[in-house]
Every structure is written in structure tokens, then in C-alpha cells.
Amino acid sequence: MTDRTDPQGLPLDPASVATLAERGLEFRPASLEGEAGEAYIRAVGHGFLEESISEERVEGFRRAMTAWRSAGVFDPASANPLSPVGTIGVQVLDLTVEPDRTLPMHAISEVTVAGTHRRRGIARAMLTGELRAAKAAGTPIAGLTVSEATIYGRYGFSPATTLAHWTIDTRRVQLTGPRPTGRYDAISREQALADAQHLHDRARRARPGEVGAWPMSWESLLGLLPGSKDTEKVRVVRYTDAAGGVRGLLVYTLKSHERDYAQHTLRVQHLLTDGAEGHAAMWRFALEHDLTTTVTTWNTAPDEPLLWMVGDQRGIQREEMDHHWLRILDVPAVLAARTYRVPGAVRLRVSDPLGLAAGEWVFRVLADGAAHLEPVGSPEGGGDPGEAGEGADGVATVSLDVATLSSMFLGGVRAGTLHAAGRILADPASVRWLDATFAPLVPPLLSLWY
């Protein structure tokens, strides 16, 4: 387990506080208690277009957000000075970078700006401030999941994992995978809590891109907090193997067809499994559910084995999208945290528009897969990433920006793809080596939102 920084004790970035103060705004930690806490929670809800927020839902939000350090930007001249015009929350989570290897990650959430205060630099001040605060605290990487994909690239974030939305025609696919020998049990959401926590913790340690759960995370995801929506529709099935071990949990809802009762849609909310048997068993339960002709899922892994457990792959419609956006803050600490596949070396020249991770290193992969980074320069700020070529030490130079390196890090995006897109400047041999050495042991995935 990596060391963790308590976000509650993490001070706000003084430069961002000063910048916003010059514009007549106050950037300060936000309490979640009392009238001020309710105003903050309602501002977050409104920022994500919640239609109405009941008192019960306010309490649910409060419990879910307790583990996060929340901060707000306040306008003392506004009609409601208790209500923030900008919000942001952070938590330090364990990011899996390779099976059984983790890094502390500055997870960012709750990012909203009121429509009345757009184009005033609030988002920039909050996000750059959090990145500087994380860097100062020694947290080597930041991450977020995004509702709007056009905002965060300018701050050095870039997609490192994808997920896929699947729509499965159960009349067509014809399961050919293994048949379970254990048993299924329908259980309550309350009964599922401990199983969900256990199964997720085991799975996330083996999958790059996953994060450790935070307090109240599974209570929130299972709809156990006050004010949770549509909880009466949520069903849970558990799979136990012949030896009595819990190997799978399926959290799902059913939606009826507008005309034909025998054509329900089963929506997979969460599929948590431990091992191939439980995984196959949970999919078989979903695809063979009575009165159901369609199964949908929102967080399918890029290497999902179900595709090879059906007779007709064309019965599965797949739509891929970006999901986990990462932002490296300390290049040597991050690159040294995982192992690599092929020995070799390049001169790595990294530019950074915010100047937080810019630098030049000889990046060397040893015979045992460990990485060693030797600094050879300290370029400041952003600018052009430079030219490909050979350094004075005879090592080929690879130039890229911090966002590109953040996408490459877990191995989910190939260097060759980024080179073809003009995001990496390097000679062909170096690109081939980067492709080979950054190849992941397991394809990265993040199965949650935060």
C-alpha cells in the first residue's frame, strides 16, 4: 500500500486564492454541515443539472462527499453569498498501475462553475491550484473522470483508459461459454455491500487504471444513501462456487418494453467477479434472464471475454469512449512505479504547459523490467516538445508533452498510435521500442466514476 495524503489537511493553493481574490471572489474550503453545507451540495447538484434536490438527497450527498476535501469559490456580492459559484473536491486514492502495484493519486471531482460566472477564470484557478497543491504535497499523479471531454486537456490531462457501452441482443448471441456449477442467490442491496467491497478490492488490485474505494463509495453506488434515485428498481444476484466462495455479484435493473412484456432490457449497473468461473456465471445469468431480449452495460472492459463466449459476435453492438483521464505531476516517480517489457533506453523530453512536470531524462529499462530515470536537463514551462534525434550521449530522443505521456503510461494507448497522430516526435525504432516496452500485463480499465 502506498503512502496517502489526507486531503482534509491539504491547503488550497495560495496563487489560486490570490488570483480569484483579485477578481472579487473567495476561494476557500467548504463545510458540508449546516446551511452552508446544504448550499454547497445544492450548487454541486445544480452544476450537474440535477432537476431538484430534496432534503433527503442533500443528506445522501453529504454522506457521500464526507471523505472528499471540498472547496468552493464564493462571490460576496451575489444574491446568495453562501452558495458557491464554483466547486471542486479532492481525495487521495490508490491508483493501480500494474497488478499489485499502486501510486497515490490526487483524484479530482465535483468540478462545477455556475452559469452566472462563466468565463471568469474560475475553473482554471481551481484546477491549476489543485495540481500545484498535489505537486507540493508530493502526490505524483492526478486523475479525474469527465462529464465534458473538451475542458481538461489544456491542464495536461489525457485519457489513459477507455470503456465500452455494449448492447447485446440475447436472441442472437447464443452463449457458448462454460456452465456454472455453483449457485445463484437474489440478495438485498444491504446484503450485497460487504461482497461488493471485497470483490472490488480484489479486482482493482489486479487491473491497471482502477482505484481503491473511498468511504461510502459502495453505499452510494448501491443506492444505500438517503435520497438515492430509483433504488426500488435495483436488483442484486450473487454467485457462490461449489466450495462456498463468493465469486460474482451482478447489480442490475429491468426496463419494460413499451409494447411487448417479453422484451425487457436488463441494464447491468455493476458486474463484480473474482475469477473466470464467477465472470462467466454472472454473464450467463444476465443473458438468459426470463422475459428479456436486450442486455446493456456501460463499463465493459477492452478485453471482456464475453465476446468469445457467444456464437455470434455481431449480436453485440459496441461503442467505445474515453473514461479515466490522468495527469502526471512527477515523471520519475510515476514511470518508476511500474515495470516494462523490453530493455532499452531513450532520451525522454517532456514539455508541460503548466511547468509542473517538464524535464529531460534518460529513461532506461533494465533487464528485470525496472525503470531508471537520469535527469539531463530541466526545461521550464511549456512550449514545443522539441525535435526527434540523438542526444550527446548517443541515446535517441523522444519528445512529447505531459498529456501524451499520461495517456501512454498504463499501456492503454500505444506510442505508435500517438506518433501517427503527431503527438510524439521520435524515430521509428524508438517508437517500436516504446510500443513493446510499455505494453501492459493487463489492459487498463476504470470500472467506476468518481
Automatic annotation (TrEMBL):
Keywords: Transferase. The keyword Transferase applies. It comes from the Bacteria. Residues 374-393 are annotated as: Disordered. Residues 379-392 have a biased composition (Gly residues). It holds the Pfam family Acetyltransf_17. Residues 25-178 form the N-acetyltransferase domain. The keyword Protease does not apply. Signal peptide: none annotated. GO terms for molecular function: aminoglycoside N-acetyltransferase activity. GO terms for biological process: aminoglycoside antibiotic catabolic process. This is Putative acetyltransferase. The lineage of its organism: Bacteria, Bacillati, Actinomycetota, Actinomycetes, Micrococcales.
